[in-house]
Amino acid sequence: MFRGIRWYDTVFIKILGDPYNILRYDQVLHLFIFMVFTLFAYSVIIHIVGKKTSKIAIGVLAVLAGIGIGALNEIIEFFTVVFFNAGATVGGYYNTALDLVFNFIGALTAVFLAFKFPNNFKEN
């Protein structure tokens, strides 16, 4: 909390109301973080697979890696709620589903950026 404000609850732009509350700080954070994770996965994949591998296949693998890491994040969040009784600070079903959606959007954005700026991901 900062001066009585929970950043988690902050709505930047009210696109949809309750129970979705899109576009919240938490959702923007998920989009950005999993975009970065996916860009990292993309750069690792592109160096492992080889020049003959389809660009689309590499993009699909990177998106799957990004959303897989996002799912692992949600599992860790779930265990935190269960074992540390943090239920009051973490949202419910809609929050988890929206987190996964924004993780996916972040992963797709990362692959779009990687395709748009391929020189940043050249093989050595």
How many runs of DSSP E, i.e. beta strands?
A: 2
Cross-sheet strand order for the largest sheet? 1-2
Quote the beta fraction: 5-15%
Summed up, the domain count is 1
Per DSSP, the total helix count is 3
Question: What would you report as the Rg, rounded to the nearest angstrom?
Answer: 17 Å
Uncertain regions: pLDDT < 50 for 5+ in a row?
none
List the secondary-structure elements in sequence, H or E: EEHHH
Q: Which term fits the overall shape?
A: elongated
The first-to-last residue Cα distance is 45 Å
In round numbers, the mean pLDDT is 86
Largest sheet: 2 strands, antiparallel
Q: Report the helical percentage.
A: 55-70%
How would you classify the helix and strand content by structural class?
A: mainly alpha
Model description:
With 124 residues, the protein is mostly helical. The protein has one domain (29-121). It has helices at 25-49, 55-84, 93-116, and strands spanning 11-16, 22-24. The protein has a two-stranded antiparallel sheet. Strand 1 (11-16) and strand 2 form a beta hairpin. The longest helix has 30 residues, at 55-84. The model has no long low-confidence stretch (mean pLDDT 86).
In short:
By secondary structure, the chain is mostly helical.
Sequence-ordered SSE layout with sheet pairings:
Elements: E1 11-16, E2 22-24, H1 25-49, H2 55-84, H3 93-116
Antiparallel strand pairs: 1-2
